[in-house]
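Posting for a labmate who doesn't have an account.
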Amino acid sequence: MDFGESLKMAAKTLTANKLRSSLTMLGMIIGNASVIAMIGIGQGAQRLASEQFESLGPNVLFVSPGGNQARQRTNNIPRTLVWDDAKAISEQVPSAAGVSAQKNASFPVVYGSRNSTSLIVGATPEFLTVRSFDVEKGRFISEIDLKRNQRVVTLGADLANRFFGDKNPIGEEIRIRNVSFKIVGVLQAKGSFLGSNQDDAAYIPLTTMSSTLTGRSPYGLDLSFISISAKDEASIPAAEFQITNLLRRRHKIVTDDDFTVQTQKDILQIVGTITSGLTAMLAAIAAVSLLVGGIGIMNIMLVSVTERTSEIGLRKAIGASGNDILMQFMIEAVILSAAGGLIGTIVGVGGVVLVAAFTPLEAIVAPAAIILAVGVSGSIGLGFGVIPARQAAKLDPIVALRSA
């Protein structure tokens, strides 16, 4: 019997038992859909993280208080990074094009009967250029505001919209931690960064933040971090080296650093490693359903061999060889697994598209993931189909006919 005849018979047998065939394919459908969806969502998360880091500003480095070992040992980050460090970097690091000092805290913000607990950022004028923010209305923090400890505030787009809607907020006053601040500007929408909404924030002069809301550390006006924009991408390694040496001299460090210097690439690499690991783990968990689907195919094929004993005996009696019977059942197993794989692929791609439609994630369907999932499902069907196929091929025709 040629391959075409075996294929026709296999298709006819499977279509004669539509419900059984559909239920058998269900494991493969779920497995393929899960694997493709998990890989697509993971790659979308990596792409989103990359875009968000690029939105922080071009060629940006971040200096934060506390060395890596100190951060691992305790949650109490030392307050040793101060505004004087930022000034020194601006003056003494030739690779730095701009330096922005920043102190973050979360405080209640009140306007009339409306209130919100939002991020309060003590900033300097350089924040706009270093972090690539733009002003939509009014202005940002100025040098005069810093020198005079002015109680002025520039609102993020979402915070301004929540309090004022379509009304122009310039000149209005809000209360931050029960202290009045005059609104002088509104920033353009920037979007979220790793789950934190950058537009739900209020920006006040760094000096006002320290003197009015948070106080100082024993070392001076302490910072949450310093953002530095390098002159160009090629200058980033030099800037990182120069900043590290400068701060080690200023802090009189002879052992472990009490600060951490990271580039966008460093942080993105860490995030990429985490998301890649999570994607691989989720895909591996989803792939278990492929194994379950393969076991289901084997079980159904074994039942099919038992039910079709008389058919096998009759075909052998009229001249079908063991290889013909083997091919018949192998083709049926492969059709079940391949059909389940194709349907699962369609479902998985549809799932990725739906996730992209309702979340910030981009729809990414990797051809390699589709090929891998369909190939694995076909291989699993072939592998698990061997046992029942060989069992059918080994049946003695006389015994098979007698047992019918």
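Reply:
Got it, the structure tokens are right above this. The chain is about 55% helix and 20% strand.
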